[in-house]
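Recap from last week: sequence in, structure out.
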Amino acid sequence: MTAPRPAVPDAAAVPPRLAQACEQHLRRLEQVRRLAPRTLVNYRRDLRDLCQRAAQAGVDAEALQPRHLRAWVAALHARGMSPRAIAARLSAWRGLLRWMGTEGLLRTDPARELRAPRAQRPLPKALSVEHAVALAAGGPTVAEPRAGARAHALAELLYSSGLRVSELVGLDLRPVRGAEHVSQGWIDWDGAEAHVLGKGGKRRSVPVGEQAMRALREWLRLRGEPPPRAAAGDRAALFLGPRGARITAQRVREELRRRALEAGLPVAVHPHMLRHSFASHLLQSSGDLRGVQELLGHASIASTQVYTRLDFQHLAKVYDQAHPRARKPR
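Predicted structure tokens:
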């Protein structure tokens, strides 16, 4: 059974050239780009909105001007649509008009200079200092010493060094450069540093705290050796999963969730939350934005500045709770 053709509904009053272009573009998105059905539903809704607005304004494709699009974006904003949703709708409009330009259906692209309203970036979720320390310092469990030592070392290292989970699972015991395997990252045991390959292929070195080094050495004592026929990359890995292969990001997430439950934390914990906690707590203590940027491996200081907002949110909460003139009258 063939899927129904993705068309623009309610097209009777729609300018004909724009309606035809929308149908062709949607078919291309479905058959060439193979977008997911749910994504196609969103595109269809956004392009239907464009067509209806063009019909109300009495303009077809070739008569579309930047002023039309600006007015329609303003109308979406006035209706209460969020900046993120407006940006998504405008992206669908841009995609259609850009494609029409490449197909020779438009001489100029009216959306080329149009900018979507900037959505405020959501604040990263970080643990409190008390919860982060409780998670990291819990120690291995007696019932399962090897698994407990691994979970302890994972939590300590993530909080101590602010690593991404991809950087963590890529760590080797020591640097390897051979025909079968080249290390992405490794631990410098003498220098107490982790050398990692971050986003964009950028290498950086980050310090590993004393407690994390102690947890890593305990894990190393219980780690054991991978199976004899294991791949070279698994043999070199710092963290091995239960079956002796290099640990996966999914396994790290599962072990952190379990460890957070055992520690009695009231929130669900994921690896990136420990990276956020590392950055937030370090910035609260030092105030060194550039230093935190280097440790996180951010290419832009703007990515790091979000933690100043998180820090201010924390200080504002302390103020509201502690300052006698901040309390609301009962």
